[in-house]
Amino acid sequence: MPEIPRVPAHWHFPADAASVPRARRAVIDSLPHALRPHLGEDLRLLTSELVTNAIRHGTCPRNESLIELVLWPADGHYWLAVSDPGTGKPTVTHPDPTSETGRGLLLVDHLAATWTVRPRPTRGTSVIAGLALRPHP
């Protein structure tokens, strides 16, 4: 009989700065305790960066935008998808050393085993990042 997979954890948060710590807490609280020493800090940082980027670049302050997060284990990774209603395609930038912003996706690129940007089927964009359950050699 095949192993039944875990149901993905799923949240919606308002597109405002107060949602960043709430999203971090929700994601970490849903991670199995045994995985927190290995994945906890990286997952916390990924959540912060992706939710902050979604709020800053993928939402419009004039409407009631929501940020959607989904966390699930599959294929030897824990996957985090952060979605927003925006249509832009986030890309890694290389800001000058004095710049105070622009390093979020550099951190994602460094922490994640793999990541991508995908358009949503109806409206918006998702950034999906995978953290390996086993450390990279």
Task: Describe the 3D structure.
With 137 residues, the chain is of the alpha+beta class. It has a single domain, classed as Heat Shock Protein 90 (2-Layer Sandwich), CATH 3.30.565. It contains 3 helices and 5 strands, in the order E-H-H-E-E-H-E-E. It has a 5-stranded antiparallel beta sheet with strand order 1-2-3-5-4, covered by helices on one side. A hairpin with a 5-residue loop joins strand 4 and strand 5. Helix 1 runs antiparallel to helix 2 and helix 2 packs antiparallel against helix 3. GO terms for molecular function: ATP binding. It comes from Streptomyces griseoaurantiacus. InterPro entries: Anti-sigma-factor_SerPK (IPR050267), HATPase_C_sf (IPR036890), HATPase_dom (IPR003594). This is ATP-binding protein. Keywords: ATP-binding, Kinase, Nucleotide-binding, Serine/threonine-protein kinase, Transferase.
Helices, strands, pairings?
Layout: E1 9-14, H1 19-30, H2 36-57, E2 66-74, E3 77-84, H3 104-111, E4 114-119, E5 125-132
Antiparallel strand pairs: 1-2, 2-3, 3-5, 4-5
Helix pairs in contact: 1-2, 2-3
Structural class: alpha+beta
Considering the protein shown, what is the CATH homologous superfamily? Histidine kinase-like ATPase, C-terminal domain
Distance N terminus to C terminus?
Answer: 33 Å
Runs in which pLDDT lies below 50 for 5 or more consecutive residues are none
Under CATH at level 1, the class stands as Alpha Beta
Strand residues, percent:
25-35%
**How large is the radius of gyration?**
15 Å
Shape: globular
**Strand element count:** 5
**Average pLDDT metric:** 87
Helix content: 25-40%
Describe the strand arrangement of the main beta sheet, using strand numbers: 1-2-3-5-4
What would you say the CATH architecture is? 2-Layer Sandwich
**Number of domain units:** 1
The number of helical runs is: 3
